């Protein structure tokens, strides 16, 4: 049996990951013996869990919290906790405290645990570790050039993960997630939030603000595909990854205009009319520095699988959130 710790379990991806773990009841052919769920607010206990579930509300960036989280020596740790991009850019100190110092405290707690403790750590990084100018598409070997505080914090986390793995202190894998679309729930502070908002809000009969032009191209994946990336990273043979421990996940290059076309095909013209165009120079400036598409050959060769189309991404949202059209 295996113990699994999910840090950031109350977030959208965290909740969907936990639901998948409960449904499948195993990781890599090993039965899940205990689920340890942590976030800044207490995560919900999933219904139908086949094993003991312990939930904790904590700020893992505070002294002593990371040590408490790994006290039971979980063999697999999903590190999903983060302040999103827009908030990290607006609040410099908070972004570095959570995204960098929290990660450092967790990794240091693992390093100092002793007794040969060497867990598989799946770290959610981001395509924000890349910034302009860059080739199109961006190859696997392209250097890290973040142009935001969030991207910088994630890039440092990747370097720490690789170094501790090199020294045998953990078995880490960094997963550079595409922008996750369509995110359920209310809008968040992520600068990329409008990519979900222009689909989510109209499908729920609400107006959505669009701050950029239709020609903006971005790299996207559904929540379902993103959870699949995490689980595959937890299961796979770490030796196959080699010393470059972070991988850019496969995704779909989709323009805002293509998103709107998909909404029109699936939801109809009346829902498209709910999109309100309100240009925002700050968001436009941030988006202009983001990467647009990747050659994710390395991740694909290791078995990571993307969505097949943006229509599929929209239909996944409709199915999982019970939207009636």
TrEMBL record:
Keywords (A to Z) from UniProt: Carbohydrate metabolism, NADP
Database matches in Pfam families: Epimerase (PF01370)
Limits of the NAD-dependent epimerase/dehydratase domain: 4-210
NADP keyword on record: yes
Domain of life: Bacteria
GO molecular function annotation: oxidoreductase activity
Protein name as catalogued: SDR family oxidoreductase
The organism of origin for this protein: Roseibium aggregatum
